[in-house]
Structure prediction request, 299 residues.
Amino acid sequence: MTKETTVTIVGAGPAGLYFANLCQKAGIDYLLIDASNEVGGQITHLYPEKEIVDIPGINSIISKDYISKLLKGVDKSKILLNTKVEKIENNKVFAGDFVAKSKYVILAVGLGFSSPRPLGIEHENECKNILYHLKKFDFLKDKKVAIFGGGDSALDWSKEISKISNDVHLIHRRTEFRGNHETIKDCKNLKIHLPYVPYSIEYENGKATSITIKKVLPEGEKEEFEKIYVDYILVNYGNIAANCDFGFEKQGMFVKVDKDNKVKNNIFAVGDICDYENKKRRIAPSIAECDRVFKLIQS
Prediction:
């Protein structure tokens, strides 16, 4: 089966949905394809309760609500879910027996299918209270929680959970966070451990009861350890991404684009999948990229 359209958008995360909104408003025919069984990308799968504060024109919004807002501006009949794109050639998008032929192709696949990066310590996979993504926070009320990670998601988790528990620990292997440290500046119930890495787990009946962390010190110095008693351990070390570059030129692990987010021959990449100098992998820059590309295809 072949379908012809003006724009084919690969990926129904926030960038893909936003671009579909632009097409919808302008009356441009489009098709939105995603390999998952639901829209929203990592926002839906990993942190739907996360607060987003960097969207132009919106002071603050919960992730799942932002996805719902974007979805309202899209024609549902133009969304194909459970459709895994296998290759893109000459502005044709191939997904099994289905082919989408279009004037423009927009890659908005984020980091593609991925699996969470583990702590990497013994007995980790035997503990059912070690979690790698959260769809809600309320079950952590008054629980002892250890959070590992230093990016924006780990900081967001720390902020939200410390509102409902007074025993929250944030552990990061560096002396500085990769994410915006302003996120946690007023978190009174949060204990921060820098620079520490996970060392060992004590567990009972399939649940971790404590985790020992080791301080990162110069070689030769005496080792330092801390034990943290836990009800839950949350791991936010990012994800191990599957290959989603479709054979296009890469810059590191991402698709290389020019200053206009162009990959080649009317194919563009927006959001986390693309890379350029000083690229920031957040929603606000992705929106700016979509606006820039949309102006180009309209001109």
The domain at 2-114+239-298 is CATH 3.50.50.60 (FAD/NAD(P)-binding domain). The first strand starts at residue 2 and ends at 10. The two ends are 30 Å apart (CA to CA).
